[in-house]
Amino acid sequence: MGLNVHALRLLLHARKHGAKLDRVVTIGRLDVLMTPEQVEQEFAAFGEHLENGEANRLIEARDRYCEPIIERLGAGVVHSLDASGFEGASIVHDLNQPIDAKLKRKYSLLLDGGTLEHVFNFPEALKSCMSMVEVGGHALFCLPSNNEMGHGFYQFSPELFFRAFSEENGYRLKGLFLAPLYRDGEWLKVEDPATVGQRVGFNQSIDQLGLMVFAERTRDVHLFAKSPQQSDYVEAWDGRDGNRLAFFDRQIAGAGSGGRRRSLRKFVPEPLLRFRRIFLAGRHATSAPDPSQFQPFDPRV
Q1: Which residue from 28, 113, 141, 202 has the least number of CB within 10 angstroms?
Q2: End-to-end CA, the chain
Q3: Is 106 within a domain?
Q4: How far apart are the C-alpha atoms of 243 and 255, rounded to whole Å?
Q5: What is the mean pLDDT of residues 56-70?
Q6: Considering only CA atoms, which of 152, 146, 85 is closest in space to residue 125?
Q7: Are 142 and 117 in contact (CB under 8 A)?
Q8: How far apart are CA 43 and CA 36, in angstroms?
């Protein structure tokens, strides 16, 4: 977990679009996972010019934890919440359990730079995070989506965040973005599956991808009073989708049975089969995301 280029970019983008940093809580005590040059570049891209050597001082000020950078952006208070005190978190609490009532509606901004995938009781953890934000405040999450098997308990789908950060839960999703986790790279704005009319996913990449969530709390309601449901199932249950196997049909269209190829494959030497697997993986990896589901997005504009 940490404050990397994309988490800082999300924080700067959110501040530019109305998020207040009066009272901030980070989920996990976040390490700064950037060079001084990267910090300078991100600040400058949003019109914040650091003095010579300031980025390095911000990184090193508290043993490479993130609080000085967030304070530099105007935060009056920066707390951190973790299941253990081993990194000096200001609040020690296991998010598998409900949070104390005194933490509800306490913060103007919550930032998770990669914690919730490590919490087994994810619905309870998400509910707690959402409840810690005051009305008018914002919640930011940077969580794994693709090719992070083994990193934590979970990888996440766009559908989850569109359904959880909904009006009935007192939230408005101001942006959901897909970005590489461990390198700088282009952001893609993710469309709502309910709007697109089909499941939204980009599963043909060998890159490790994460979802960046930017949500505003609009009112104080009982969170998840009604459990979120996947939009394509809701559409089918309402009788709006006449083909219950539409998703399956799309996935197998043009695939063929492959039975004859499989029977012949046993006669092919393993080195050639290995080369074929690498070739096919590369071919799939270079497939572009569906433009009806993902659009290039520059958070700095």
Answers
A1: 202
A2: 27
A3: yes
A4: 20
A5: 96
A6: 152
A7: no
A8: 11
